[in-house]
Design a protein that fits this description.
Number of domains of chain B: 1
Order of helices and strands of chain A: HHHHHHHHH
Helix content of chain B: 25-40%
Strand order of the largest sheet of chain B: 6-7-8-3-9-10
CATH superfamily of chain B: P-loop containing nucleotide triphosphate hydrolases
Largest sheet of chain B: 6 strands, mixed
Largest sheet of chain A: none
Radius of gyration of chain B: 19 Å
Strand content of chain A: under 5%
Distance between the termini of chain B: 42 Å
Number of helices of chain A: 9
Shape of chain A: flat
Number of strands of chain A: 0
Oligomer: heterodimer
Helix content of chain A: over 70%
Shape of chain B: globular
Number of strands of chain B: 12
Order of helices and strands of chain B: EEEHEEHHEHHHHEHEHEEHHEE
CATH topology of chain B: Rossmann fold
Structural class of chain B: alpha/beta
Radius of gyration of chain A: 22 Å
Number of domains of chain A: 2
Strand content of chain B: 25-35%
Largest interface: A-B, 27 and 37 residues
Distance between the termini of chain A: 46 Å
């Protein structure tokens, strides 16, 4: 794992390097996690893609908070049963989803007309609206993270193609995944080289200048590198379609799982109306 | 028959002429070195030969067929071409984008829709041949430079291409890895066509029967490795050699530019 102390307090460069290092670790972690022994890892990728997407749709359609909460509990159970560390899910999904959806939901607390809550300038209806948004975001993000952490990326792409997702969309997803690691490594090297030439701590203004200049250079390198990666794929016969070595074959447990996902999604839509 | 026939080919990007009105022919079964300093256009030429980019003017014929954008969009032409012509990129990182070494090597055969049992068998065989079987389940991004280069080579050699395009195959490798990669190329080469872009004169006689020297995107000389290596004025003019000094312990010797 990391050579960097997770709580190390350094300058801008050190912190950026540390952040990039962790991002690389995370990018690589999904494939490792997908090869572990776990309940979802044993299922056919098509079942997982269809089942978990069905649950996401049911979360979007649910009009009762407790049905969304029930699906979130189910998602957490799947995380646990699939040997994915809860801590990883919390740090990589829940905090981020809470912050982003919370920021969007915050105005609703004050602006939604309704009954004031405990004499505060927020309304019961506002809290309810905000809670729906946050809970939906948390649950959907957890379900998608479970999918990503229990299924090799190429299998997800192949399953998407089987479900007739347009090839352009799947190719963009595939390229993004292939490219993101290279971009992180490039950024890491850039900041390492900068660190090797930096003696003193930089002022906030210098940090800002460095961040802006580095973003520009990284963008340029990104475009160049994405061309190179695409060339390398083309040179080995890539024509836009996704092929994987493993054949997908539905077994009894897959049919049971598919039925269970469908029943749960249908039940949450019906009960949660 | 000629393998590649390049006729008055020009390729420009961002205002820079990388290949300038180039005409040359590469015979079938020949080991060719494209020699040139950095920026001489040799990597661009390899990409043009592999049908990854297309010139603004001029033509490239592969065994008599035009390597054109139209042909490349046609599966019936492009897939056999990709099966026949393999390219190893200078930077192995751009070539390694799969989760494991095994998947990486299997990528090409999968794209060319080989039977899956044949792919598994062939991947194991090539990993064994390149002595990297122990890396099979490793994440490519976590390998050393030499290992990455071997995996990149394996990912192309697995298709057993009749034509191999190599872009600086020994760049950024330690001397031992360089020598191993050269040995692999010599061992694999046999009667196949190998086109290597390089500025390394040290292994020239091992990897090539014929050399083309590029400078500023133009062909400035051609000949056998011995002929090219003997022409120090040419090598100096094209920045392939320069005055330098070696110091090992107390021993110092100098190569002058005279």
């Amino acid at each position: 794992m990391s050579d960097f102390h997770p709580n190390a307090k350094g300058g801008f460069i050190e912190n950026t390097l540390e952040g990039l290092h962790f991002a690389i670790e995370r990018a690589l972690y999904a494939e490792v996690s997908a090869s572990r022994a776990g309940v979802l890892q044993r299922l056919d990728p098509r079942v997982k893609v269809a089942g978990l997407f069905a649950l996401v749709v049911s979360v979007a359609l649910a009009a009762k908070l407790w049905t969304i909460a029930a699906i979130l509990v189910l998602a957490v159970a799947l995380v646990w049963l699939s040997s994915v560390p809860i801590r990883a899910v919390a740090s990589r999904t829940w905090i981020g989803a809470f912050v982003f959806s919370g920021m969007i939901a915050l105005p609703a607390l004050f602006l939604t007309p309704g009954t004031p809550l405990y004499g505060l300038p927020i309304t019961l209806q506002g809290v309810r609206t905000g809670s729906f948004l946050v809970m939906r975001a948390e649950t959907a993000a957890t379900l998608m993270l479970v999918l990503a952490y229990t299924t090799p990326w190429t299998h997800i792409l192949k399953a998407l193609r089987i479900f007739r997702v347009p090839v352009v969309f799947v190719v963009i997803l595939g390229m993004t995944c292939r490219y993101i690691l290279l971009m992180l490594e490039t950024a890491h090297e850039m900041f390492e080289s900068r660190k090797s030439r930096t003696v003193n701590r930089m002022s906030p203004a210098e940090n800002r200048r460095l961040a802006i200049a580095s973003s520009g250079v990284l963008l340029h390198k990104t475009i160049q590198m994405s061309d190179e990666v695409y060339f390398a794929m083309q040179a080995r016969g890539f024509r836009g379609e996704v092929y994987v070595l493993d054949d997908f074959a539905m077994q009894t447990r897959d049919w049971f799982a598919l039925a269970a996902f469908a029943a749960l999604a249908a039940a949450s839509v019906l009960v949660g109306r | 028959m000629m393998l590649f026939e390049i006729e008055r080919l020009t390729y420009r990007y961002e205002g820079v002429t990388a290949v300038d009105d180039l005409t040359l022919a590469i015979p079938e079964g020949c080991r060719v070195a494209l020699l040139g300093a950095n920026g001489s256009g040799k990597s661009t030429l390899l990409r043009l030969l592999d049908g990854l980019i297309f010139g603004q003017s001029g033509t490239i014929l592969f065994r008599g067929d035009d390597v054109s954008e139209q042909h490349m969009l046609d599966d019936e032409w492009a897939l056999p071409f990709r099966r026949t012509v393999g390219m190893v990129f200078q930077n192995p990182d751009v070539q390694l984008f799969n989760p494991t070494v095994f998947d990486e090597v299997a990528f090409g055969p999968l794209q060319l829709r080989w039977p899956k049992d044949q792919i598994r068998e062939r991947v194991d065989e090539i990993l064994d041949r390149l002595r990297i079987s122990q890396l099979k389940n490793r994440i490519p991004q976590r390998l050393s430079g030499g290992e990455k280069k071997r995996v990149a080579l394996a990912s192309v050699l697995v298709l057993d291409p009749a034509v191999l395009l190599l872009d600086e195959p020994t760049a950024a490798l330690d001397p031992r890895s360089q020598s191993e990669v050269i040995d692999l190329m010599v061992e694999w080469g046999g009667s196949k066509s190998v086109i290597t872009a390089t500025h390394d004169l040290g292994d020239l006689e091992d990897i090539a029967d014929r050399c083309y020297v590029l400078d500023g995107g133009k062909l400035v000389a051609e000949g056998t490795p011995a002929e090219i290596l003997a022409d120090t004025a040419l090598l100096r003019r094209t920045n392939l050699i320069h005055a330098h000094r070696h110091k090992r312990g107390e021993e110092v010797h100098t190569h002058s530019q005279r």
